[in-house]
Amino acid sequence: MTDGIDGRKRETLRRFAAIGAAAPFVGAASAESEDEGGDANETREAIRGYVPTTPGAHFSKLRDDLRLGTGEAQYHLRKLEEAGEIESTKDADYRRYFPAARFDDLDKRALGYLRRDTPRGMVLALLRDPAATGADLAAELGVSRPTVSTAAADLEAAGLLDRTDGYALTEPERLLTLVVRYADSFDAEAVAFADDAASLVAYDP
């Protein structure tokens, strides 16, 4: 069983390491990284591939997706952040990671909320139907009205929603481009949405 787990971890790391090698971060890998062992380099390269394709992922998601131990993930993320290759922000109870100098603060907040199920569902629903009401959103998402209200308040505080007269996205174009660009890193619903919307936008962060 352990051999199988280690094999899946190595396969996952190699896949994201290949992405990292093909599309490196702004800035070169540090000499310190090159001096470390092969496993450390492979793990570091995997994180370099993962963060740009899954921007805004929080620590636990990154750790689990890459099949890393907690201490292992913390060590390599710290090294990459110290080298100026990635940056992180605190979002409520989560620390989220981004490639350095790629996104502004509003993009980071938007990506953080797009990585939460209910806010993302609300954003997709409002992009499809800007006239959707709180009751419409609750019915579509299969959640309670208070759940929608709480998520709406969070989105408003983040500068992404205006509740003056119903629910209106304040940055629909920005949210649309982020959903389309990173749909594969969200869920199947986002991918289906992006398939319909991709022809409407072009985004090159």
From TrEMBL:
It comes from Halorubrum kocurii JCM 14978. GO terms for molecular function: DNA-binding transcription factor activity. PANTHER family: HTH ARSR-TYPE DOMAIN-CONTAINING PROTEIN, TRANSCRIPTIONAL REGULATOR, TRMB. Residues 124-165 form the HTH marR-type domain. Residues 41-111 form the HVO-0163 N-terminal HTH domain. This is Uncharacterized protein. It holds the Pfam family MarR_2. InterPro entries: ArsR-like_HTH (IPR011991), HTH_HVO_0163_N (IPR056504), HTH_MarR-typ (IPR000835), WH-like_DNA-bd_sf (IPR036388), WH_DNA-bd_sf (IPR036390). It comes from the Archaea.
